[in-house]
Amino acid sequence: MKKVSFLIVIFILFSFVSVFSAHGEKTVDGVLLKKLNVASTEHDIIQLMLKKGEYEKIPAEIDNILNLELPSKFEKAVMKEILIVSNDLHKKGENEIALLIIDKGLNYCKSDENKVILLKVKAAFLKSMGKLEEAIKVFKKAVKLEKRSIEK
User: Fold this and answer.
1) CB atoms < 10 A from the CB of 115, how many?
2) What gap in Å lies between CA 50 and CA 8, rounded to an integer?
3) Which of 23, 34, 58, 72 is deepest in the core (most CB within 10 A)?
4) Which whole number is the average pLDDT over 118-124?
């Protein structure tokens, strides 16, 4: 399990750095680097809280990441963190907190592409919880956003 957690952290850092590199940046601004380090450490804190069963504390830690005001080029990496954490919570039966985390991600994300992914995961969680009507509504929101991106 330690190896998996370590690999996730490496993946997240790689996501941040590769997104940065993909935009032609050659050096990392000192403040940005500190923010990325904070985001990585917050990920570690969240993973420990998951392990300890301190699920109710996790939304505040997610807020700490979202409040870092990372540049928009890091939105996909932040969205992936939302997916990892919400999925871990869902697996542990903490569905309401998982949905809260996804909603935080939906409020944070500006990209329709990222919102569609989060909406589909939210709908899948609702479906697994037996909340079929809510799941249908959320899937329809995802379809509406996808259609909007096709029409652009």
Assistant:
1) 21
2) 14
3) 58
4) 98
Residue 34 DSSP one-character state: H
Tell me, which fold does domain 2-110 have in CATH?
1.25.40
Q: Say which DSSP state 27 is in.
A: S
Q: Given this model, what pLDDT does residue 22 score?
A: 46
Query: Both tokens of residue 147?
Result: 């259609």
Instruction: Report d(CA 65, CA 27) in Å as an integer.
Output: 22
pTM to 2 decimal places: 0.80
Residues 90-117 pLDDT 10s: 999 999 999 999 999 999 999 999 999 9
- Write out the two tokens for 5: 């957690």
Q: Which two tokens stand for residue 26?
A: 């050659």
Tokens describing residue 9: 């952290």
